[in-house]
Specification:
Number of strands: 22
Shape: elongated
Helix content: 10-25%
Structural class: mainly beta
Mean pLDDT: 83
Low-confidence stretches: 1-15, 38-46, 354-369
Oligomer: single chain
Order of helices and strands: HEHEEEHEHEEEEEEEEEEHEEEEEEE
Number of helices: 5
Strand content: 35-45%
Radius of gyration: 28 Å
Strand order of the largest sheet: 3-2-5-7-10
Length: 369
């Protein structure tokens, strides 16, 4: 009996020693980033920082497909993200994919629910390509005047990318850049101290012309996705009934006119500084400027324009504002309309029109935000 027990014990120990270690599952790493400022690769006249709310990534979805097929390699959804401007996302992949390492297409969406989009693990490449920011979101029907709690919708896309490295950890080396899918317009006003006693002074309305903002916009920006020739036809009032008392005054309103030697950030800083009151040695200087509204809207390939209706010295009047070029309001750009009241019932309007940060034009600021 003793010999039998010893034999059983030896046999068991030998089997344990020879048990293979579990095989590590292959993963594909994808790198996503949303720079506070674009990476400068050529001459550039300046960029503008986003606010914390505008830069927030609250949810992130990453899809990887085999290039030239409908095969989904994997999908990852993340929320409550710790975001420092970049993110490494690991996607579990099959052994078959790991052995073949085909080229891949990568789609990344952030804060997609802010645009009313229900995207998830079952979304196909075709569904992502055709994902639309519809007319109910970031349009003129219900203008968005602050960043939604879900954040601003962003997207990024890389196609036909090689898979590098070896088992069990693979990677796509180029990083996917997230870009906001909407743009921003700000209306900044002041008045000369010389018109401070004009009790009739007020802004009656600020409206955007019809026919300039598309009814829908693709979430993913690619050469295959172009804005349909279908625009919101009616003019839309963005700001209504602002009394002259609600508009701050300034000794010299012309100091806030954009100067060609300023970078975009320098001008934005000057405007933001003018919107703040300052305390020096217990003496408070009121803000010189007033922001009558900021709005987040779908991008447009048209030249945006509008009308400011106002009353000054008891007379109702109006003036217009317009972008310099069609396409200046493409996604992830900002537009500042600065206007100031002078004596004689005059309203001066200056616009800082925005183009792609890679473009070169000395006549107006060019920057992303």
């Amino acid at each position: 009996m003793l010999m039998l027990l010893l034999a059983v014990g030896c046999s068991s120990g030998s089997e344990d020693a020879e048990s293979p270690l579990p095989k590590e599952k292959p993963v594909l790493k994808v790198y996503v980033f949303a720079p506070e400022k674009p990476i400068v690769t050529r001459a550039d006249i300046g960029n503008v920082d986003a606010s914390a709310e505008e830069a927030a990534i609250n949810t992130l979805d990453v899809w990887v497909f085999e290039t030239g097929t409908t095969t989904l390699v994997g999908h990852v959804h993340q929320s409550n993200i710790s975001w420092d401007g970049q993110k490494e996302v690991a996607i579990n992949v099959s052994d078959d994919f790991a052995s073949r390492k085909p080229n891949v297409d990568i789609y990344v969406a952030a804060n997609a629910d802010a645009a009313g989009l229900a995207l998830g693990a079952t979304s196909t490449a075709s569904a992502l390509e055709s994902a639309i920011i519809a007319s109910d979101y970031f349009g003129l029907t219900s203008p968005v005047s602050s960043v939604p709690v879900e954040g601003l919708p962003m997207s990024g896309l890389l196609k036909d990318q090689a898979v590098t490295d070896t088992s069990p950890v693979y990677a796509v080396t180029p990083r996917v850049k997230l870009v906001r899918a909407v743009s921003k317009v700000r209306f900044i006003f002041t008045k000369s101290v010389s018109v401070a006693n004009d009790e009739s002074l007020k802004v009656n309305s600020i409206s955007l012309n019809g026919g300039v903002l598309p009814k829908q916009e693709y979430l993913f920006n690619s050469s295959d996705n172009v804005v349909a020739d279908n625009y919101e036809t009616a003019a839309a009032t963005l700001v209504s009934e602002v009394s002259g008392d609600a508009i701050n005054s300034c000794d010299n309103p012309s100091i806030y006119i954009y100067k060609v030697e300023q970078t975009g950030q320098e001008y934005e800083n000057k405007i933001n500084d003018g919107l703040e009151e300052h305390v020096v040695e217990d003496v408070t200087t009121p803000a010189a400027l007033s922001e009558l509204g900021r709005f987040y809207l779908r991008e447009s390939d048209k030249k945006l324009a509008g009308t400011i209706s106002f009353t000054s010295e008891g007379t109702a009047k109006s003036t217009t504002f317009e972008m310099a070029e069609a396409g200046d309001f493409s996604r992830n750009h900002t537009w500042i309309v600065y206007a100031y009241f002078l004596g004689g019932g005059e309203l001066k309007v200056n616009v800082v029109n925005v183009k792609s940060w890679t473009a070169q034009d000395g006549t107006h600021a060019i920057y992303n935000w």
